[in-house]
Amino acid sequence: MAPVTQALLFAFLMLLLLRRAPGLGVWQCPVLCCSSRDQPQTLLSLCPGVGAQVDPGFQLRQPQDKVSVAAGETLTLNCTMSGVSPPGPVKWLKGWGSRNVTVYDLTGSFPRVTRAVDGSNTDFTIHIRDVQPEDSGTYYCVKFSKSLSGDGVLQRGSGTEVSVQAKPSAPVVSGPDRRAGPGQSLPFTCTSGGFFPKDISVKWLKDKALITSQPPQINPGQMKFSFDMSSTVTVTLQEGDIRSQLICRVQHPTLEDPLDGTYPLSRALRVSPRVQVVMDPSSPVKVNQTVNFTCHVKRFYPGDVTVTWLENGTELKVQNVSRAVETPQGLFELRSLLEVQATEEKNGSVFTCRVVHDAQDPVTSMATLQIVPLSKEGQGDWSQTDNGVNLLASPVLWLGILLEKGLLGGLLIFLFKRGRA
Ligand SMILES: *[C@@H]1O[C@H](CO)[C@@H](O)[C@H](O)[C@H]1NC(C)=O
Ligand SMILES: *[C@@H]1O[C@H](CO)[C@@H](O)[C@H](O)[C@H]1NC(C)=O
Ligand SMILES: *[C@@H]1O[C@H](CO)[C@@H](O)[C@H](O)[C@H]1NC(C)=O
Ligand SMILES: *[C@@H]1O[C@H](CO)[C@@H](O)[C@H](O)[C@H]1NC(C)=O
Ligand SMILES: *[C@@H]1O[C@H](CO)[C@@H](O)[C@H](O)[C@H]1NC(C)=O
Ligand SMILES: *[C@@H]1O[C@H](CO)[C@@H](O)[C@H](O)[C@H]1NC(C)=O
Ligand SMILES: *[C@@H]1O[C@H](CO)[C@@H](O)[C@H](O)[C@H]1NC(C)=O
Predict the structure, then answer these.
(1) What predicted TM-score, i.e. pTM, was given to this entire model?
(2) Which residues cross the membrane (predicted)?
């Protein structure tokens, strides 16, 4: 072989060797390795700012480090290029490595994405509308170089970390399934969800007064990158709570003003009625006289009651129930009137007013009809009720009767003694 041919062959072999061995010289690395398709990732990390050396004029810039955007808003991702752009596509990728997702390239269809400057060769800034918590992640603007074996990464931006801030949903307060009376303690729960970041504060108020509560429970939400919270408070009910509101107040970095969830305590409260039967006239009741039995049903909530009258334990059909009237405190009152003709066979009859409220045991009050015999008319006072509206229980009346009898007795004795004398 001619020495010239040998020299040429040697030179060719050397060249091949240099191409195969990327670590040989720093100056060679960008030129030789980074256009190689074998290990784009490792090479890229070994050779930062790679593209600049491919074409000293080419530079890709991704200026945003971190971007925070509210859910539902439009996210802008900036990417600009300068210098002579070698052939090959530019893409936006979310994530790096095997889990990357192409967010935008020129060839695909990306309905939520628009370019800031359509068709520009230098500005590859994109807008992504209606971002959701699951859009959180790191986004890379990437310039690929074209080669026969496919596109390789030429240069990649430094990445933009996007966090999507999501507002909590309107808080909802739920109460117990059943009503409870004043003095009882009941749990109430406030829930809200879909928020990001995790920090959230919950306050409970009864009207304007703060109630102490445990910190809320925060759990991962149904959507990725979102959280749900639940907070429980125990409230001891009072009779005056009918007009009270329980408020769950949620504050989150995404909110200008806190969000309130309200619960009217009237939905959890039951105030059982006080029942009292009043007879009119109470005494004396003469045969065939009309007697009004009025059943006073007082201070109850909610406003539904059923009132029935019974005579000697048997239900009566005739009755007259007034409309429930609301008191200023929000409690209800009503009356039921029963007109009875005091016939002789009703002597000793027991009239009962039975009130059923909110599926509770009935509350009753009763009165006994006593009829004065014709012969004693105008003398005896016979009527009584069992709830304190009993004239016989009046000490003044007893005193009057005693005084009257005493005087009469005294007079009789006096007359008798005088007669004998
Ligand atoms: C991002 O790009 C838009 C549109 O090109 C521009 O208005 C904005 O100033 C850029 N922001 C940054 C941080 O470069
Ligand atoms: C993106 O993911 C695909 C496979 O899912 C992989 O082939 C490709 O190398 C990845 N690209 C980058 C730049 O990580
Ligand atoms: C009471 O009324 C009944 C029938 O209405 C009558 O038969 C009876 O005589 C009356 N009794 C008196 C004492 O008025
Ligand atoms: C009984 O009630 C009726 C109807 O409200 C009334 O007309 C009548 O005067 C009342 N009777 C008595 C004794 O109060
Ligand atoms: C109930 O009482 C009112 C007056 O208090 C009267 O107008 C009405 O007719 C009565 N209804 C019945 C069914 O007795
Ligand atoms: C109810 O009972 C009393 C005493 O048991 C009796 O005197 C009265 O007649 C009874 N009333 C009726 C309507 O049966
Ligand atoms: C009603 O009953 C009482 C005792 O229960 C009795 O003293 C009175 O005489 C009775 N009246 C009539 C009208 O029968």
Answers:
(1) 0.64
(2) 396-416
